[in-house]
C-alpha cells in the first residue's frame, strides 16, 4: 500500500481460479508511483493467455512505460502534454517488447499483452489504453466516469494487444480537466462485474464500496484486497486473473476524512 501526502493507493494482482487449476502463474502485472506535486502514475497490463511469454510481456510493458512517464513527470503536470506523454509510454513499452523479442529470438506475439496507463493530479486525470481492461474516476457527489473502456470487437474474447501491428493507432486516450477523488483500474477479469455492458458505464454498487474501503484501510490493505479478489463471490463470476488498483485522495470523501 502507498500512502503519500495526496494519494492513498492499494493494489493487488492474483491468479484466476482457471490458472490456479491449470498450474499457471498470474499473467497480470501492475505498478503505481506517487511523485511530487501530487502526481499519481498507474500502469496495468494483462499478458495474453495464448502467448508463451505473456507474463514477461506484461511485466516489461508496465516497467518500461511507468519509467518513461516518471521521467516525463514535469511535463505530465501540464494538461496539454498529458496525451503526448502517455502515448509515449505506450510506444516505449511496445519498443521494449520488440527489443526483448529480438534478444530472445522469438516472435513478438509471444510477448502479447494489454496496457493501461493513468496519470492523475488534483487538477486533472488522463488515461491511455491498448486492449481490454478499464479505468474509472470518482468525482464529487459519488459521480463515476469511465475513463477508458474495453474496445468493442467483432468476436467474444477478442482483444487488441500491444504487440499487434495496429495497437498504437487504435489506442484510446481520455482526459478530464477535473481532479478525481479516486481512481480504479482493472484488467478484463473484473470488467463484467465492474461495468454495465455494452455501454461500459461504471457499476456503482461495485465501485463505491471499494473506494470507501480504500479510503479507510490500514497497513493490511493489500492482504484484504487480495482476499476480496480470491473470494468465492468473485470466483463464481470469473476464473481469469484479476488486478485491481484503487487510489483515493486525502480529503473529505463520503462525509469522512481520508
Task: Outline the structure in words.
This protein is α+β, with helices and mostly antiparallel strands and 258 residues long. The protein has eight helices and 15 strands. Strands 1-2-13-10-7-8 form a six-stranded antiparallel sheet, with helices on one face. A five-stranded antiparallel sheet has the order 3-4-5-6-9, with helices on one face. Strands 11-12 form a two-stranded antiparallel ribbon. α2 (54-71) runs antiparallel to α4 (79-104). Mean pLDDT is 90; it is low at 252-258.
Q: What does the secondary structure layout of this molecule look like, with pairings?
A:
Layout lengths: L1 E2 L3 E8 L2 H6 L5 E8 L3 E8 L7 H18 L1 H4 L2 H26 L10 E6 L4 E6 L3 E6 L3 E6 L23 E5 L5 E5 L4 H4 E2 L4 E2 L1 H13 L4 H9 L2 H4 L6 E8 L2 E2 L2 E2 L1
Antiparallel strand pairs: 1-2, 2-13, 3-4, 4-5, 5-6, 6-9, 7-8, 7-10, 10-13, 11-12, 14-15
Helix pairs in contact: 2-4
Concise synopsis of the structure shown:
By secondary structure, the protein is an alpha+beta fold.
- Helix share bin: 25-40%
Strand order within the widest beta sheet: 1-2-13-10-7-8
Helix count? 8
SSE order in H/E notation? EEHEEHHHEEEEEEHEEHHHEEE
Based on CA inertia axes, which overall geometry fits? globular
Percent of sequence in beta strands: 25-35%
Radius of gyration: 17 Å
Q: Output mean pLDDT.
A: 90
The end-to-end distance, rounded to whole angstroms, is: 15 Å
In total, how many beta strands? 15
Biggest beta sheet summary: 6 strands, antiparallel
Quickly give the structural class. Answer: alpha+beta
Extract low-pLDDT stretches.
252-258
Amino acid at each position: 500500500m502507498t500512502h503519500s501526502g495526496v494519494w492513498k493507493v492499494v493494489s493487488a494482482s492474483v491468479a484466476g481460479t482457471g490458472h490456479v487449476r491449470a498450474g499457471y502463474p498470474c499473467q497480470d502485472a501492475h505498478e503505481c508511483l506517487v511523485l511530487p506535486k501530487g502526481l499519481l502514475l498507474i500502469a496495468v497490463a494483462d499478458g495474453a493467455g495464448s502467448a508463451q511469454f505473456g507474463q514477461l510481456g506484461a511485466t516489461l510493458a508496465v516497467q518500461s512505460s511507468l519509467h518513461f512517464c516518471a521521467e516525463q513527470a514535469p511535463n505530465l503536470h501540464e494538461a496539454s502534454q498529458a496525451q503526448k506523454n502517455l502515448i509515449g509510454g505506450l510506444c516505449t513499452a511496445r519498443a521494449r517488447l520488440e527489443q526483448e523479442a529480438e534478444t530472445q529470438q522469438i516472435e513478438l506475439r509471444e510477448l502479447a499483452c494489454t496496457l493501461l496507463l493513468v496519470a492523475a493530479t488534483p487538477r486533472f486525470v488522463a488515461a491511455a489504453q491498448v486492449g481490454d481492461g478499464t479505468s474509472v474516476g470518482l468525482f464529487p457527489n459519488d459521480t463515476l466516469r469511465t475513463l477508458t473502456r474495453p474496445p468493442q470487437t467483432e468476436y467474444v474474447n477478442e482483444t487488441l494487444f500491444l504487440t499487434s501491428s495496429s495497437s498504437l493507432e487504435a489506442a484510446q486516450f481520455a482526459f478530464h480537466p477535473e481532479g478525481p477523488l479516486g481512481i480504479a483500474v482493472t484488467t478484463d477479469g473484473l470488467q463484467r462485474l465492474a461495468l454495465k455492458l455494452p455501454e461500459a458505464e461504471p457499476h456503482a454498487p461495485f465501485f463505491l464500496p471499494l473506494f470507501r474501503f480504500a479510503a479507510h484501510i490500514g497497513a493490511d490493505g493489500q492482504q484484504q484486497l487480495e482476499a476480496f479478489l480470491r473470494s468465492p463471490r468473485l470466483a463464481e463470476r470469473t476464473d481469469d486473473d484479476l488486478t485491481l488498483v484503487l487510489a483515493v485522495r486525502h480529503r473529505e470523501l463520503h462525509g469522512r476524512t481520508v
